[in-house]
Amino acid sequence: MSIIHAQPLLSIRDLSIALPAGGDRPHAVRNISYDLHAGEILCIVGESGSGKSMSANAIMGLLPTYLKPERGQILFRGQDLLALDEATLLGMRGKDIAMVFQEPLSALNPVMTIGDQIGEVMRVHREYPGEARARRVLELLEFVGLPDPATIVHSYPFRLSGGQRQRVVIAMALALEPALLIADEPTTALDVTTQAQILALIRRIQAEKGMGVMFVTHDFGVVAEIADRVAVMEKGVLVELGNAEQVLNDPRHPYTRRLIGAVPHGRAREGGRADDRTVLDVRNLRKTYVSGGGLFAKKRVTHAVDDVSFRVRRGETLGIVGESGSGKSTIGKCLLKLTHVDGGEILFDGHDLARLSERQFRPMRRAVQMIFQDPFASLNPRHTVGRIISDGPVASGVPRETADARTRELLELVGLEASAFDRYPNQFSGGQRQRIGIARALALEPRVLVADESVSALDVSVQAQVLALLADLQQRLDIALIFITHDLRVAAQICHEVIVMHRGRVVEAGPPAQIFDAPRHDYTRRLIDAIPGKAWDPTRVPAAA
């Protein structure tokens, strides 16, 4: 438990941030008040659009130009940040208050070395001159647990893994030992083991430095793992505030109970497969990447998929789990021939897809479809939703009128209104865009659906809706579903069978009850042990009325 000091480090008092006229609601944040103490981790939770990141950006003075605090105070050590000019705020950012952003690749300059980017924080604030700066950079890289700091200091961001980049961003935030650290969804896109490492790092730093930490998240497992206190936000309003034990196990507000009720419980799916007929039979699949090579460098060979075999039956959900780099997404690409297969067989409907040319595979592509991870990047922003969904069938020879009629049916099937047909992707939320992606995949009436991290970036309530939708569609349409994920709770809940990938190989396979309740491989046990908040049981919380 963190040591919490008597006087607040940060006090937000009756803060309201107005939205431009004509939107769904007048305020991004309305009359919120809470304190954050030194030595405390305060988790701010809520769905997208709840205002949790907006309040964090207001503290940093990073609100968009069209958004201004309408009233209220943000008191840092008794000083109202909203009353300060930009020059004064600039002097405080990084030195007194620092922020760790959600996407480290976007937060880092791709053409600057890691050492230069961390050193820039010190240079701007005129701290650690000369050789002291270089020593401080190496000290920070070592402090956040990065291997071989002397090499990483000269590396560029693209050379590092996602977890390593996030550690670099944390090192930048810690460079001048700020009193307040704001972490905005810093572990959302990370696999469970990397996430566990980052959470442990933040806890260690907070304890050693006595900082106040504001941790913005939609993951209640993370809240259960690290929070001292929890603030719950809904549509810009603070609906609940209390210590972590109370909010997680005895929430007072119906919205909090609804959020917790949507958290994947991680219990194994009950019931067997709907059908024993094999739809897809993968045998000894191999995919190798070769990089480097030249006069002074050896070629680097990576076995992304190494002798992988599995079967998927009609009406069955097969989960493929593992860390980033384990090969699970590469399997998905191989199944859809989005990458060349180096060996093995992919048997579907009497054909070996691995041996087919692109021309031979084209008529069969409609039978194996993918739901992509990012619902923002996978939809063409220049096309209407109707065209996005209907273009596939039209390209396969279906008349436009027939395809459009089917598109309207699919929009209704995935829970969207018919008016969505003529609208553009930017007019929808993340969860709605993922429903559009599902409708697009279903438009070609596939027999196999590959979902690649399709719910990892969604709020828990939206995630629950999409998972329920997939289960319903699978039952109604008798589709085989391959569900690729790093979220073990989700895999346990929706899959009939699970394979665990590690460095391109299957290390364990079986039903969820065996995989998650009695794992046989050390790597599987490590994955399960790394699940944040594993000891917390969301099913014990009373459901919302």
Descriptive account of the structure:
Helices cover 35% and strands 25% of the residues. It has 20 helices and 20 strands. It is α/β, with parallel strands linked by helices and 545 residues long. A hairpin with a 2-residue loop joins strand 9 (229-234) and strand 10. Helix 4 (114-124) runs parallel beside helix 7 (162-174), helix 15 packs across helix 16 (430-442) and helix 16 (430-442) runs parallel beside helix 17 (460-477). It has a domain at 278-373 and 448-536: P-loop containing nucleotide triphosphate hydrolases (Rossmann fold), CATH 3.40.50. This is Glutathione import ATP-binding protein GsiA. Residues 10-260, 280-528 form the ABC transporter domain. One of its GO terms (molecular function) is ATP binding.
CATH superfamily descriptor of the domain at 278-373 and 448-536: P-loop containing nucleotide triphosphate hydrolases
Q: Helical proportion?
A: 25-40%
How would you write the strand order of the largest sheet? 6-7-8-3-9-10
Cα radius of gyration in angstroms: 25 Å
Counting DSSP E segments of at least 2 residues, the number of strands comes to: 20
Low-confidence stretches: none
CATH top-level class of the domain at 278-373 and 448-536:
Alpha Beta
User: Residue-averaged pLDDT, rounded?
Assistant: 88
- List the total number of helices: 20
Biggest sheet layout: 6 strands, mixed
Molecular shape: globular
Identify the CATH architecture of the domain at 278-373 and 448-536: 3-Layer(aba) Sandwich
Organism: Cupriavidus pampae
Keywords: ATP-binding, Cell inner membrane, Cell membrane, Membrane, Nucleotide-binding, Transport
Family: Belongs to the ABC transporter superfamily.
Domain ABC transporter: 10-260, 280-528
